[in-house]
Automatic annotation (TrEMBL):
<keyword id="KW-0611">Plant defense</keyword>
<feature type="transmembrane region" description="Helical">
    <location>
        <begin position="467"/>
        <end position="492"/>
    </location>
</feature>
<keyword id="KW-0449">Lipoprotein</keyword>
<dbReference type="GO" id="GO:0006952">
    <property type="term" value="P:defense response"/>
</dbReference>
<comment type="similarity">
    <text>Belongs to the glycosyl hydrolase 17 family.</text>
</comment>
<dbReference type="InterPro" id="IPR012946">
    <property type="entry name" value="X8"/>
</dbReference>
<keyword id="KW-1015">Disulfide bond</keyword>
<protein>
    <recommendedName>
        <fullName>glucan endo-1,3-beta-D-glucosidase</fullName>
        <ecNumber>3.2.1.39</ecNumber>
    </recommendedName>
</protein>
<keyword id="KW-0812">Transmembrane</keyword>
<feature type="signal peptide">
    <location>
        <begin position="1"/>
        <end position="31"/>
    </location>
</feature>
<feature type="domain" description="X8">
    <location>
        <begin position="372"/>
        <end position="456"/>
    </location>
</feature>
<dbReference type="GO" id="GO:0098552">
    <property type="term" value="C:side of membrane"/>
</dbReference>
<keyword id="KW-0325">Glycoprotein</keyword>
<keyword id="KW-1133">Transmembrane helix</keyword>
<dbReference type="InterPro" id="IPR044965">
    <property type="entry name" value="Glyco_hydro_17_plant"/>
</dbReference>
<keyword id="KW-0378">Hydrolase</keyword>
<keyword id="KW-0472">Membrane</keyword>
Length: 493
């Protein structure tokens, strides 16, 4: 028995070392989160071309989106596909359910469409404090069943299992990374989960958001949220930990997790950064200048392969996110819909330097709806009693998060606010006839009403692309348009 256990342990350690080496990011490699919660998703073929044009060779999907996966077939882009939290319970309670999920969402795409799926992300931040333990009991059994399903499918060596976790699963009571440990209420669960991943060739995924640290605490030192520029003095908030000076929150946060793992004998596990980025709208700290500053520092680190003091080689880092998503929940804040390095249509928000000093390239081949906008009629007053209800209705079905204080459209006057809301509804409804007739307060114009930093958008025409690639996106847009049409019948006269 002792010899057998030693052999198993040696195999696990060897597997972990191999995983560490295989997961280390080669200098210059880029990875991104591709979210699909948009009313008019950028078609899959266009999105894949955007990824390849900018050197992204890895992508993470939050669910097994058919349109995205079909587009990724035979591209050479490595894919991490997500199993959503709502599926944790059924998958945890049945190996057969896990096998069916793997068959339909992993095996079939690999064998039939040539999608290079390399990992399954089981759940998404399932131990988040705000979930109040809802997913805790199901997570490890779901991981075990998915692993068993991958073994049965003959994919366990190609497709590894992970669990993306929020940084709230660990803490440091005195602020030093070396004092890091798991959150007490889930410490046993974390040790069991990481041990299983380590023993089965998996890896751990952690989401780190310096922006949220700054956004949640008005006294948080702003410069500590960013990566210091070469030659610049360190932030006054820098943390001295023994012989190491931590000059930014990312390094300190990541190494706090590494310390927690090492305390429990789990330091051999590979740790991937599943989400990190900076939004450009919906909050006073969310703007293009701040996002450019943070993401350029991040990209420079990735391109140089520079890791943290405890893990000197940069791991895989999935930038959050590739594109804005105007249908995401805004429960955490209005900024949730504006994390993209690119706008909803793949256009550049700001410049980022890539390897060799070249700039990021915008999406090619995007087709739009007609060049027209819905605005408040010149002879209509913003003080009209019907305006409040019309604007509220428009923003119920379309994205108006850019109108908030400190946001890109926060400086519009009353007339501009109304026009922006009307146009968002009009575009979300595919510019359908009748969708710009708010009690005769609105009109269609062909003159771009954009002002300053506020862009009055024209939506993507999802129906004018290759149906074999974008069929689900087109169907989704058509479905949304149908819902909006039914909705506007109650208001638009």
């Amino acid at each position: 028995m002792m010899g057998s256990c030693a052999a198993v342990h040696a195999l696990a350690v060897a597997w972990a070392v191999a995983a560490l080496l295989s997961r280390a990011t080669p200098a210059g490699a880029l990875a991104a989160n591709w979210g699909t919660r948009a009313l008019h998703p950028l078609p899959g073929d266009v999105t894949v071309r955007l990824l390849r044009d900018n050197g992204f060779d890895k992508v993470k999907l939050f669910e097994a989106d058919p349109s995205a996966l079909r587009a990724l077939g035979h591209t050479g882009i490595q894919v991490m596909v997500g199993l959503p939290n709502e599926l944790l319970a059924p998958v945890s309670s049945s190996v057969a359910a896990a096998e069916q999920w793997v068959l339909h969402n992993v095996s079939s795409y690999i064998s039939k469409l040539g999608v290079d799926i390399r990992a399954v992300a089981v759940g998404n931040e399932p131990f988040l404090k705000s979930y109040k333990g809802k997913f805790e009991a199901a997570t490890l059994p779901a991981v075990q069943n998915v692993q068993a399903a991958l073994v049965k499918a003959g994919l366990a060596r190609q497709v590894r299992v992970t669990v993306p976790l929020n940084a709230d699963v660990y803490e440091s009571l005195d602020g030093r990374p070396s004092a890091g440990d798991f959150r007490p209420d889930i410490a046993g669960l974390m040790v069991g989960l990481v041990r299983f991943l380590l023993d089965n060739g998996g890896f751990l995924t952690i989401n780190i958001y310096p922006f949220l640290s700054l956004q949640a605490d008005p006294n948080f030192p702003a410069d500590y949220a960013y990566f210091p520029s070469p030659g610049s003095p360190p932030s006054q908030a820098s943390v001295q930990d023994g012989g190491v000076l931590y000059t930014n929150v990312f390094d300190a946060n990541y190494d706090t997790l590494i310390s927690a793992l090492e305390k429990h004998g789990l330091g051999a596990i590979a740790v991937v950064v599943g989400e990190i980025g900076w939004p450009t709208d919906g909050d006073k700290s969310a703007n293009a200048a701040n996002a450019q500053r943070f993401n350029q520092g991040l990209f420079d680190r990735i391109l140089a392969g520079k890791g943290t003091p405890r893990r000197p080689q940069m791991p895989d880092v999935y930038v959050f996110a590739l594109l804005d998503e105007d249908a995401k929940s805004i429960d955490p804040g209005s900024f949730e819909r504006h994390w993209g390095v690119f706008n909803y249509d793949g256009s550049r928000k700001y410049n980022l330097r890539l390897a060799g000093g070249r700039s990021i390239a915008p999406a090619r081949g995007v087709r739009y709806l007609s060049r027209q906008w819905c605005v408040l009629r010149p002879d209509a007053s913003p003080a009209d009693p019907a305006i409040g209800g019309a604007v509220g209705y428009a923003c119920q079905y379309a994205d108006c998060t850019s109108l908030g204080t400190g946001s890109s459209c926060g400086g519009l006057d009353a007339r501009g606010n109304v026009s922006y809301a009307f146009n968002q509804f009009f575009q979300a409804a595919n510019q359908m006839k009748g969708s710009c007739n708010f009690n005769n307060l609105s009109m269609i114009t062909t003159s771009d009403p954009s002002q300053g930093t506020c862009r009055f958008q024209i939506e993507i025409d999802t129906g004018r692309h290759d149906l074999a690639v974008a069929s689900s996106a087109s169907a989704a847009a058509t479905s949304v348009a149908a819902v909006l049409l039914l909705a506007l019948l109650g208001l638009v006269i």
